[in-house]
Amino acid sequence: MAKVTGIGGVFLRSRNPTRLAGWYREHLGVPMSDHGTVTFHWDDSATDDHPGTTTFALFAQDSDYFGEPGQRAMLNLRVDDLHDLLGRLRARGVEVLPDTEDSEFGRFGWCVDPEGNRIELWEPAPGM
Question: Which domain CATH number covers 90?
Answer without folding.
Answer: 3.10.180.10
